[in-house]
# Entry
Amino acid sequence: MPYSATSIHGSQPTYRCSECNRGFKNVLLGYLHHQEHFSRVFCSECKVFLHKNDWRRHRQLFHAEAKYECRFCPAAFTSMQALKKHVHERHTGPWIKCKKCGKILKTTYGLQRHVCASEKVDESAGEIAPGTALPPLPSGPSS
# Structure
C-alpha cells in the first residue's frame, strides 16, 4: 500500500490510487475507490461508465428493441411491465374535465395550471369525467 506513518499524521493523503493517482486521507475509502476501477463497464453507445451489476438492466432499458407499443400514444417499451406503468400513469382515469371549456386533464394540478393561464383558480372548476376506464392491455408483444 502506498502510504507511510509520516503521511498519516501530515496533510498528505494516506492512500493514493495506483490507477488514477487520486489521494485519500482515509485508507478504506481509497481502497474502495481503487476497486471501483475494476467493477465498471463502459457503454460505447451512451459514453458512460456503469457498475457491472447494472449493465444488463441498462442494456435492456436503453438499447433493447422496443417490442411493446402503447396503443394510446407513440411511446414504445422494452418490457410489458414498463408499458403497464406508462399506461397507468398517463392514460388511466379518473380524468378531470374543465367545466368552462371541456378540456380533459389527468390531475387536479393539471386543472389548476390550465385555468390559471386564463383566470384565477376556482374550487369548482373541474369534475370527474364519467366513463374513463380503459380496456385491458394485450398480454403479448406487438407486431
The chain has three domains: 5-36, 40-92, 96-128.
